[in-house]
Amino acid sequence: MAGQRSSFGKLQRDRDKKAKAAAKRSRRQDGTDESASPEDETSAPSINGHQLSTPELLERIAEIHQQFDAGTISYEFFEETKADLMSRLAVD
Q1: Phi and psi (nearest 5°) for 60?
Q2: Is the separation of the CB atoms in 18 and 83 below 8 Å?
Q3: CA distances from 15 to 35, 55, 66, 85, 87 (A)
Q4: What distance lies between CA 29 and its chain's CA centroid?
Q5: Residues 15-36: pLDDT tens digits?
Q6: Mean per-residue pLDDT of the chain
């Protein structure tokens, strides 16, 4: 019997975790790492210190779709950004 395959959600969480660790490692090497606060993990979605509401997140997703359709961004960037924004959406 074959083992159960990982779900897309689990794979995406693993990718996000690795990307976050790489960014943290990069900040530490640059000397710009401020002490990580515990709210980093649990805070509401934010970009540049500004917390985004659900409508703002959906608007950003629509924007990257338009940019991808226009050919101004690569598929990899589109998928990465879209996955990040989708993971920030609050599910009620």
Answers
A1: -65, -35
A2: no
A3: 23, 25, 25, 14, 12
A4: 22
A5: 888 888 777 777 787 775 454 4
A6: 75
Q: Where are the beta strands (DSSP E) in 1-92?
A: 46-47, 50-51
CB atoms within 10 A of CB 11: 11
What's the CA gap between 7 and 69, in Å, rounded? 27
- Note the pTM of the prediction, 2 decimals: 0.46
Q: What percentage of the chain reaches a pLDDT higher than 90?
A: 26
50 by Cβ neighbours in 10 Å (0-12 / 13-18 / 19+) ranks as exposed
Q: Cα torsion for 39, 41, 44, 49, to the nearest 10°?
A: 70
